Amino acid sequence: MESDGRMAPAVESILAAARDRGGGGDRVAVEARSLPAAFERAEADGRVPVVAEVKPTSPTADGERTDDPVELARQMVDGGAAALSVLTEPDHFGGSAETLEAVREAVDVPVLRKDFILHEAQLDVVEADVILLIVRFLDEEGTDDLADLLAAARERGFQVLVEAHTADEVERAVDAGADIVGVNNRDLAKLEVDLATFPRAAAAAPEGVTLIAESGIGSPDDVRRMRTAGADALLVGSAIMDHGGDSDVTENTRRLTAAETTDADTQT
């Protein structure tokens, strides 16, 4: 069922904070590590391409992870992550530009800056290989145009992951020039997750677009379901971070990146 477009209160709070944050100052110029090439290397190595997310906490998480984020990032790469996503949103996710900078220096895989970018000036905060633009957030009054922001990001050297939730948003992302599209299984109107979202929305993407399934992926069975539906890669946060717990992040990552080479689903 399509939502009515209204945001959950937690998301409205995130947007309000994002509107108040300015840019970082000097124009950023990036020599980006290729995200599609990282996915290809994972496939060639027999691993499911997973973007593992360094996320201390979130409005939907039970608890937080206080480990050194750089060490967590290294453990994710040791577990086979093809790329990393690092939160830089400080108010609701405990992220920072400094954390992303430290993680990117410590690993050799592409690093996505996960934040809520509404204006071009907000691109100029920190060097990353990929930045996130969210179609639904950029539909809001007072934000920059998606196509303009996408072009501005590429001028700085960023690759761009454009996030959608519906088939219509996927079409808008592609029309704006996106060639890497994420489909978020979480409905921002209610913060509810439905893994049937990815197959419905991804069907609107033309051949040649790199598709990433996001949110709600917690088991090898979920991984196989998304891959069968056409996901080139998966973005996974909470199932790897284990907020409020202390499970092995390397093993959490490995059980998902190895999902297509084993029939064992040892989810606990």
TrEMBL record:
Species assigned in the record: Haloarcula onubensis
HAMAP family: IGPS_A
This enzyme's EC code(s): 4.1.1.48
InterPro entries per UniProt: Aldolase_TIM (IPR013785), Indglycph_syn_Halo_TrpC (IPR054875), Indole-3-glycerol_P_synth (IPR045186), Indole-3-glycerol_P_synth_dom (IPR013798), Indole-3-GlycerolPSynthase_CS (IPR001468), RibuloseP-bd_barrel (IPR011060)
Enzyme class: lyase
Annotated Low complexity bias: 255-268
Record's keyword terms, sorted: Amino-acid biosynthesis, Aromatic amino acid biosynthesis, Decarboxylase, Lyase, Tryptophan biosynthesis
Domain Indole-3-glycerol phosphate synthase: 28-254
Segments of skewed composition (Basic and acidic residues): 244-254
Family per record: Belongs to the TrpC family.
Region span, Disordered: 244-268
Name of the featured protein: Indole-3-glycerol phosphate synthase
Catalytic activity reported: 1-(2-carboxyphenylamino)-1-deoxy-D-ribulose 5-phosphate + H(+) = (1S,2R)-1-C-(indol-3-yl)glycerol 3-phosphate + CO2 + H2O
